[in-house]
Amino acid sequence: MNFESDNQNIAWCPGCGNFAIHKALLAALDESGFSNQETVLVSGIGQAAKMPQYIKANYFNGLHGRAIPAARGIALHNPELKVILTSGDGDIYGEGGNHFIAGIRANQNISVFVSNNMVYGLTKGQASPTAQLGFVTKTQPKGNSNEPFNPIATAIAQNISFAARALAADIDKTKEIMLKAIHHEGFALIDILQPCVSFNSVNTYQWFKENSYYLEDDYDPHDRVEAFKRAIEEKFALGVVYERGTVSH
Q: CB pairs under 8 A, 24+ apart, for 225-232?
């Protein structure tokens, strides 16, 4: 299937990590086996939330922080649809934090792809929930004083059925991880590390590369204790960090 949209007026800054995520998602959808009509993309508000507008499929843009409830409603109404949520770290982990936890616990058949650039890009650079301690912004001139939210550790603590992390710059690997999430039965999360070239000069492409690593070939994602250990490491583990099963509601 061809999921490439006719809408070429893409409103992202040149060099934005969303371009790489867009390319990986197009490739994953083309290989997924689902048709355009069978696929629904859902998002909230933000730069990453513009993604569905640039994919040839059904889509629904919800309110800020409310993408997961919308996706759950669509999946509940028509279980035959492949529901994929694409939004940002602020939208999902910040405004939508409670819905994030509720969605994990409900374990409906939804794929959630979060563009994590550790900053609010649409509103010009405030620290997002995943921003590191000390991160200086216009609204945090003395540095961010909050501990960064760890989505993978939180998800594993809630016994999510599938939790993975990807690196936007590695398009082929990101596509492979997306395909695993798309074919997983249950709530599947991918936290996708990506730079914001306009409002985050710290967490760059090079920084993410130096501060991440791919899980070993013999790594067992079904070991929840080991998965949690990997989730709280200083370096970001890439790949399927945890997978508990395929039971869905």
A: 227/156, 227/163, 228/153, 228/156, 228/157, 231/150, 231/152, 231/153, 231/156, 231/163, 232/150, 232/153
